[in-house]
TrEMBL record, chain B:
Coiled coil: none annotated. The keyword ATP-binding applies. Transmembrane segments: none annotated. InterPro entries: ATPase_AAA-3, CbbQ/NirQ/NorQ/GpvN, ChlI/MoxR_AAA_lid, P-loop_NTPase. Keywords: ATP-binding, Nucleotide-binding. This is MoxR family ATPase. It holds the Pfam family AAA_3. The keyword rRNA-binding does not apply. It comes from the Bacteria. The lineage of its organism: Bacteria, Pseudomonadati, Bacteroidota, Chitinophagia, Chitinophagales.
Length: 330, 333
């Protein structure tokens, strides 16, 4: 009894050992199968033909391994290829499954065979190996439409009106609404925008007024009375130069006395006071650069000359300003 | 020492008397030199301020005649050195020559041993000869062998440059040009002056020769007075403003000049501007400097001290253009 059990176990082991390489071989096998979603269509109907290749995943690790799916032309015998999907790869345990779907139709009625497809495999066993896997042909019945010849012919239908649907026009409606809203927004904005407050124009100090003010300030500072003669004449000539610059556009601040006397020539009004200006500048230059101590009379005289030049060249007031200054008639 | 009002008045009177020779000298030179008052005036400024003059102008503008006449009028020694590419330093300063009779080396002095030197076309000689001359100008002494010789006083070098022929020339480096107090650009005479020149040259007997008006010692005395001319601190500030505007134009609202100036005036520019302004005031018979004096000589003192960038050269901007902009922007005291 015990002996029989031992023999049975030995046989079992033998079978297991015998079947193992077969299963391994089955796992390593590369297959290509073609299938259709239907075998019978009406003329012009579409059928999806799927080509599936099963490859052991280990094959993809080989550097030379390459698998090429067939390139079907648009027209096959009795069949038209309408679309081709991309090759889709899925993994299932140790296998990789490559799939490609062809959408096919036929306009020839009858029983036709979709031709076998060839999948080319390179480098499966060694770098230079080449194999071709061929699928079985697929039989597809292409049927015509059954016509009831017993019934009379019907006339051709007239053009039918498509029923109106608001959603067909939603883009136009939305655009129109946006334009109306924008216009409304702009109208509200401009209506409620704070009105520009007219700028209050402060009365500008004219060069003449400025010079008058500065001369007055210079007098009040009593510089020469305090012995600061150089500063007195520097300020006095600077006031006049700045006045000439702003009133007549002569770059007097950057000009020497001689240059200034030359450049006032085109300004007739100013040129009429040339001698006074020359005398004033001469004394001022001596006081500024030669430490000359003019007498008190000369100081006063220079100030008077400056005022006279200013008065002589005083610009005529603008009519607008003049009328503004006038008292309203009662 | 602080100058008082009375000091300046006395100085003014003193200078008024002492500078009388300037008018006489100008009149005497006017006998033979027609026009070119500007150049003669600058020569006198150089003479009085103890500075040398670089003259730029085409040939035939009476450069040699001017300096020769000036030396005659001052009763001074004149020599002319024509600078050529094969000139040697010894040809300018002198050399040691072996005397067979005495069996010894003797010094043969070069043409630089004179009061007035005309270094004609200075840019035609190589750098070593230029350096020999410029060193003598600076040091005012010459060393030949073991002996050092002081140059005569007054000593004025008038160097000329021809602006049109630049091929085969050795342009003076900026450092060398800076040693000239003034760079004077002279132009052609007017039509009237040209007519006088023709007449004078066709009838040379009609013009009387130059007579010595003053002696070299008078010039040395005048130089002392020039240094005494009063310069107010306002004028000093004005000079500094001008020189600084060439260095940092953006500080004087002249940003547009910044890319045009590669380098501005050196402190030597300020010194020379002050000295030349004093000499100009002296010539105008004043004992004090006014802004006009500074402006009058500003171009001559500064034009060779303002370096131009490639951008400026590409845009044909000259140092005179830059100086004009600066003078129009810097406030006059």
């Amino acid at each position: 009894m015990y002996k029989q059990q031992v023999i049975r176990r030995i046989f079992l082991c033998f079978f297991i050992v015998l079947l193992l390489p077969i299963s391994l071989l089955a796992q390593q096998k590369i297959e290509a199968v073609a299938g259709a979603d239907t075998t019978s269509i009406r003329i012009g109907e579409q059928v999806k033909v799927q080509l599936r290749a099963t490859i052991p995943a280990a094959q993809f690790n080989k550097p030379a391994f390459r698998i090429l799916f067939p390139v079907l032309s648009d027209s096959l015998e009795h069949f038209e290829v309408i679309a081709r999907s991309a090759v889709d790869t899925t993994t299932q345990q140790d296998l990789k499954i490559l799939r490609q779907t062809f959408t096919v139709t036929s306009f020839d009625s009858g029983h036709w065979e979709f031709p076998p497809m060839k999948v080319e495999v390179y480098g499966a066993t060694d770098a230079s190996s080449f194999d071709t896997l061929t699928t079985y042909p697929l039989g597809i019945d292409v049927n015509t439409v059954a016509v009831d010849t017993t019934k009379a012919f019907k006339p051709i239908k007239t053009v039918q009106t498509v029923p109106w649907n608001i959603w067909d026009y939603w883009m136009y409606i939305a655009g129109g609404a946006a334009v109306v809203l924008l216009a409304l927004g702009l109208w509200l904005y401009f209506r409620k925008r704070p009105k520009k407050v007219p700028e209050v124009k402060l009365p500008l100090v004219t060069p003449y007024d400025l010079a008058r003010q500065q001369l007055k300030a210079l007098k009040e500072e009593k510089l020469w009375q305090q012995g600061d003669i150089k500063q007195y004449y520097t300020r006095l000539t600077d006031i006049l130069r700045a006045y000439f610059e702003h009133q007549f556009g002569i770059a007097a601040l950057e000009q020497t006395s001689e240059e200034l006397l030359q450049n006032i020539k085109p300004v007739t009004k100013l040129n009429q006071q040339r001698d006074k200006l020359r005398a004033l500048l001469a004394i001022a230059d001596l006081a500024k650069f030669a430490k000359l101590q003019p007498t008190a009379d000369e100081h006063e005289d220079c100030m008077q000359k400056a005022e006279e030049i200013l008065e002589w060249t005083r610009p005529k007031e603008e009519p607008a300003n003049a009328s503004a200054n006038e008292k309203p008639a009662v | 020492m602080e100058n008082t009002s009375s000091d300046i008045r006395q100085l003014n009177e003193k200078i008024h008397q002492a500078s009388a020779f300037v008018d006489l000298l100008s009149m005497e030179l006017g006998k033979v030199i027609v026009g070119q008052k500007y150049m003669v005036e600058r020569l006198l400024i150089g003479l009085l301020a103890q500075g040398h003059v670089l003259l730029e102008g085409v040939p035939g503008l009476a450069k040699t005649l001017s300096i020769k006449s000036l030396s005659s009028a001052i009763n001074a020694k004149f020599s002319r050195i024509q600078f050529t590419p094969d000139l040697l330093p010894a040809d300018v300063v002198g050399t040691m020559i072996y005397n067979q009779q005495k069996n010894e080396f003797v010094v043969r002095r070069g043409p630089i041993f004179a009061n007035f030197i005309l270094a004609d076309e200075i840019n035609r000689a190589p750098a070593k000869v230029q350096s020999a001359l410029l060193e003598a100008m600076q040091e005012r002494q010459i060393t030949i062998g073991d002996s050092t010789f002081k140059l005569d006083d007054p000593f004025l070098v008038l160097a000329t440059q021809n602006p049109i022929e630049q091929e085969g020339t050795y342009t003076l480096p900026e450092a060398q040009v800076d040693r000239f107090m003034l760079k004077v650009v002279i132009g052609y005479p007017t039509r009237e002056e040209e007519r006088h020149i023709i007449r004078q040259n066709l009838n040379p007997e009609a013009s009387s020769p130059i007579r010595p008006i003053i002696q070299p010692s008078d010039i040395i005395e005048a130089r002392k007075l020039v240094r005494e001319v009063y310069m107010d601190e306002k004028i000093e500030k004005y000079i500094i403003d001008i020189v600084f505007a060439t260095r940092n134009p953006e500080e004087y609202k002249l940003q547009k000049l910044k890319p045009l100036i590669s380098y501005g005036g050196s402190p030597r520019a300020s010194i020379n501007l002050a000295l030349a302004a004093k000499a100009y005031a002296f010539m105008k018979r004043r004992g004090y400097v006014i802004p006009e004096d500074v402006r009058s000589i500003c171009f001559d003192v500064m034009r060779h001290r303002v370096g131009l960038t490639y951008e400026a050269e590409a845009e044909n901007v000259t140092s005179e253009n830059i100086l004009s902009e600066i003078l129009n922007a810097v406030e006059v005291p």
